[in-house]
Specification:
mainly alpha
Length: 421
């Protein structure tokens, strides 16, 4: 009997139906968001080249540092709160108001810092419009209420609209980007697409779910920030090794090398997206039914292993499709695939076990240790080994994080068994 069949047997019909519906909706939303760029990537690389694409990627790596700040861990805490208080209009209005106000405040702080960096550093100022257009992504991220729909386990309402906007963005790439100098249009279209999705999402919250923005006292805002801070750090510090690998590669190497590295990373990111889909679909469910964790763990480990095999077996076709001829491309891909499995462990035992168990500080300490070690190692590894060093640093850090959580899980289960009479 398959793992999925076992899960269906153990769950009630209503729960199984909800999980399946949410999986299909979130899968469509996330995978279209990854597959459409994969369809456009060969065209972009051919028209604007690896160097201009590298500039776009480098700008996006700067913006990525601020994505966690504008989110401020609401993709976890707000989902968790909405899942618990989904039947209370008063509580939902409070959660909605806290999320929108705090996200807005941190968005303003982020845009101010980015603007200061761009205008003060000549190498950044040279491509100021690329950074400006890339910053529009932050506005879209702040507006997009995926946290709410995930929390109430009703992702389908926004999936279709979001996919429509992203399809429109993809079509626009082929229509408007015709030569190398058109590379600036790419981040502009991408940012506009995310903002469009965010605006429509907010419209749905107000019209369909009757949510209202209410004025909150400063104490409520400060208390929420304080409460979310440990999980914010847990979500932010992985960028110290994850994003810094790309960012340092752009600073220390050539923009063309950044383009090649990111093109390879696209394949890994698609797999990461699949892992995230399963992880995020099960997160609100496991908050309600913790005893389903064992089946979830087996399912995600199996999926991660299958994806690893598919990528490594089909690497020649992947490199042909992306026109990658770099001599160390397969080695980079292999290292990143190994790291992808460490990422799976992190999602299994971090988000969907210890955070579900409300052991946020345990996850925070593990994340801090792995991220800081990865951040320290990033500079020497990338300085001496270039993109290979970036891949080693990313994968090593992911295994530090995932492996560390797995060991803590084993110890936790051992302590539970010894305390059971």
């Amino acid at each position: 009997m398959s793992i999925i069949s076992k899960i269906k047997e153990k769950l009630k019909n209503k729960d199984a139906k909800t999980l399946l519906e949410n999986f299909i909706s979130l899968s469509a939303l996330q995978l279209v968001g990854m597959i459409l760029p994969l369809l456009t990537l060969p065209y972009i690389l051919r028209v604007v080249g690896f160097e201009k694409y590298g500039i776009i990627v480098f700008a996006a790596s700067l913006i990525a540092y601020f994505q966690s700040l504008t989110d401020f861990s609401f993709r976890i805490t707000a989902v968790r709160d909405v899942a618990v208080f989904r039947n209370s209009t008063k509580k939902l209005n409070l959660i909605y108001s806290k999320v929108l106000i705090i996200k807005g405040l941190f968005l303003l702080v982020s845009l101010l810092i980015i603007g200061t960096i761009v205008f003060l550093v000549p190498s950044f100022y040279e491509y100021k419009w690329i950074y400006f257009y890339s910053s529009l992504l932050l506005v879209g991220y702040a507006l997009f209420p995926e946290w709410f729909f995930q929390g109430i386990e009703k992702m389908r309402y926004i999936t279709y609209l979001n996919i429509g906007i992203k399809v429109f963005f993809t079509i626009c790439i082929f229509v408007f980007i015709k030569k190398e100098d058109d590379y600036w249009i790419y981040p502009l279209l991408q940012g506009a697409g995310y903002i469009g999705a965010g605006i429509i999402g907010q419209f749905l919250l107000i019209k369909k779910y009757k949510l209202k923005l209410i004025w909150l006292p400063k104490k409520v805002i400060f208390d929420t920030v304080k409460k979310n801070f440990p999980l914010f750090i847990n979500q932010f510090v992985p960028t110290l090794y994850n994003n810094t690998s790309t960012f340092l590669l752009g600073l220390l190497g050539t923009k063309s090398m950044v383009g090649i590295y990111q093109a390879i990373m696209i394949i890994i990111n698609i797999s990461i997206t699949i892992i995230d889909v399963f992880s995020r679909v099960f997160f609100p469910f496991l908050n309600r039914k913790k005893d389903a964790f064992g089946n979830y763990k087996k399912l995600l480990l199996s999926i991660s292993l299958v994806m690893s095999i598919i990528i490594l077996v089909g690497y020649k076709l992947i490199f042909w499709y992306l026109n990658i001829h770099y001599e160390y491309a397969f080695l980079i891909l292999l290292i990143l695939v190994i790291g992808m499995n460490g990422y799976s462990l992190s999602n299994i035992f971090g988000l969907n076990y210890f955070i579900v168990q409300r052991k946020d500080k345990l996850v925070l300490k593990n994340t801090l240790r792995a991220s800081l070690i990865g951040f320290v190692l990033a500079f020497p590894l990338i300085s001496y080994l270039g993109p290979i060093g970036a891949a080693i640093n990313l994968s090593f850090s992911r295994w530090m994080m995932g492996g560390g959580l797995y060991l803590k899980y084993l110890n936790f289960r051992k302590d539970e068994s010894s305390n059971t009479p």
